[in-house]
Automatic annotation (TrEMBL):
Principal subcellular localisation of the protein: membrane
All copies of domain Major facilitator superfamily (MFS) profile, residue ranges: 7-491
Organism: Acinetobacter populi
Protein name: MFS transporter
Pfam families xref list: MFS_1
Lineage of origin: Bacteria, Pseudomonadati, Pseudomonadota, Gammaproteobacteria, Moraxellales
GO molecular function: transmembrane transporter activity
PANTHER family noted in UniProt: MAJOR FACILITATOR SUPERFAMILY MULTIDRUG TRANSPORTER MFSC, METHYL VIOLOGEN RESISTANCE PROTEIN SMVA
Length: 501
């Protein structure tokens, strides 16, 4: 009995830094931009490479765990995660930090299925297993939500690299506990890994996003070619999965409208959550002069709302049905975006916090509704495949959120920025690219010109922020209508309740 809960403690310890690293850099974006002289594209890659690489690798790493056992997978994944954390902490360029974050994602893609496998194989009694899974989900959601606050606290006292070094003591403790206290498991040596298909999926996703990020500032044949290659690889991957006897992703599940709708809800809800968190962290620091810690504290109501939204959502879904609650959650998320778009964070803090609380709860409702839609629509033997697809959708949503919000922000900022008349021609591309680069350029100008650059950049960012949130609100409204039409007949109540555990 004691060993079960000790294994759960190990699972929680290693899952916490994995969850936090998805969001801990959001509040550090301005600091990173200044310390490494980053372009906006480099900053976005540093942040979202983690989720995008993890999304493509998490399914085959689960199969690897079946072949070698979750103990070995935890050891290998934790070791990689620790090494990557050290590399990231001491990176002195954008490319090294991007590569380190990609390696972090490889380790994380091993750790997540290993922790779930550990719970599934350790807690054989259903009630205990559900309790352990509940703790696992709480740690994951709470870690991601409070990542920016921890990042802000660390940046207030230490070098930015410390946000990665805090992983090392946890990794060492987990490795020692795993080696000495976790028993070996039976393995399935015939399990298909699909590593080549996973690599093709990752390359396809990264190529498409790279082409979009490049095309926003320099639309040319190179960006068109890379996008075409990425799209072709993605199409080939999907075609291969349909024909494969043992696919990495069972796309036949997407024919079920509840599952396909749930996947879309999961991706969009995560995009809204992660994208908004990144955007507000930059605005608070660049525009309003908040420190990283002050920015983290400002968004604390949003984090708390996300953490507390799960129980509220489960009660509402059980009482009013999936269709109504899913649609309402997405609709309220859109209204929250509109409200935040027209809120002055400096003079109307209470209004900002109220809107953030509403957004946090409504996004969490949408996320839980997506889980209910997916898991209540499959047979027990398909539950693992559906759950794996949902997990990948969450990571894709996190990566797409950074890319989507970042691209929209860049586009609107470039359209809004007003250049000082005496700004040297060579500096215009940098100043018009992002507020971070504009602030960096201003540091080397005389006081008068620097003030103009900073004021114009802040004004452009505020206008861009409003346009991004308004656009997001419109898209969420469209999604709400789609979900209402797509889920015309609610599931039986007992199936929804079962899906919520």
């Amino acid at each position: 009995m004691f060993r079960r809960w000790l294994i759960l403690a190990i699972v929680i310890l290693i899952y916490l830094p994995v969850a936090m690293d998805a969001t801990i850099l959001h509040v550090a974006a301005p600091t990173l931009s200044e310390a490494l002289a980053l372009s906006n594209k480099e900053l976005l890659w540093i942040i979202d490479i983690y989720s995008l690489v993890m999304a493509g690798l998490i399914l085959p790493m689960g199969a690897l765990g079946d072949r070698i056992g979750f103990k070995r997978l935890i050891i290998i994944g934790s070791t990689l995660f620790g090494i990557a954390s050290v590399f990231a902490a001491f990176s002195d360029s954008a490319m090294r930090l991007i590569a380190s974050r990609a390696l972090l994602a490889v380790g994380a893609a091993m750790i997540i299925p290993a922790t779930l496998s550990a719970i599934r194989n350790t807690f054989l009694e259903e009630k205990q297993r559900n309790f352990a899974l509940g703790i696992w989900a709480t740690v994951g959601g709470g870690g991601a939500a409070f990542g920016p606050l921890l990042g802000g606290a660390i940046l207030g006292h230490f070098h930015w690299g410390a946000v990665f070094l805090i992983n090392i003591p946890v990794i060492i403790l987990v490795l020692l506990m795993t080696i000495f206290f976790v028993p070996k498991q039976k393995v399935q040596t015939t399990q298909n890994l699909n590593l080549l298909q996973a690599l093709i999926l990752v390359i396809a996703i990264l190529s498409i996003i790279y082409a979009l990020k490049t095309g926003i500032t320099a639309f040319n044949w190179m960006s068109i070619t890379i996008f075409t290659v990425g799209f072709a690889l993605l199409a080939g991957f999907i075609q291969n999965q349909f024909r494969s006897a043992s696919p990495m992703i069972d796309f036949h599940l997407f024919k079920n409208r509840f599952i396909s709708t749930g996947i879309i809800m999961a991706i969009v809800a995560m995009m809204a959550l992660v994208g908004f968190e990144l955007l507000i962290s930059q605005e608070l620091q660049f525009v309003y002069g908040y420190t990283a810690l002050e920015a983290g504290l400002f968004v604390l109501p949003f984090m708390l709302a996300i953490s507390c939204g799960g129980p509220i959502a489960s009660v509402l879904v059980n009482k009013f049905g999936l269709r109504r609650i899913a649609t309402t959650g997405i609709l309220l998320s859109g209204l929250s975006m509109f409200g935040l778009a027209h809120t002055d964070f400096a003079s109307a803090q209470l209004q900002a916090w109220g809107m953030m609380i509403l957004l946090g709860i409504s996004v969490q409702i949408a996320l839980l509704s997506s889980t209910a839609a997916i898991m209540s629509s499959v047979s027990p033997e398909k539950a693992a495949a559906a759950g794996a697809i949902e997990g990948m959708a969450y990571e894709l949503g996190a990566g797409f959120g950074v890319a989507f919000f970042g691209l929209m922000l860049s586009w609107f900022y470039m359209q809004s920025i007003v250049m000082p008349s005496d700004l040297p021609q060579a500096l215009i591309p940098a100043v018009s690219s992002s507020i971070g680069e504009a602030m960096y350029v201003a540091n080397d100008m005389d006081i008068s010109l620097a003030t103009q650059i900073q004021d114009n950049a802040k004004a452009a960012f505020i206008r861009s922020h409003r346009q991004v949130l308004n656009t997001s609100g419109i898209l969420l409204m469209i999604l709400a209508a789609y979900v209402w039409l797509r889920l015309p007949n609610p599931h039986r109540k007992d199936r929804v309740v079962e899906s919520l555990g």
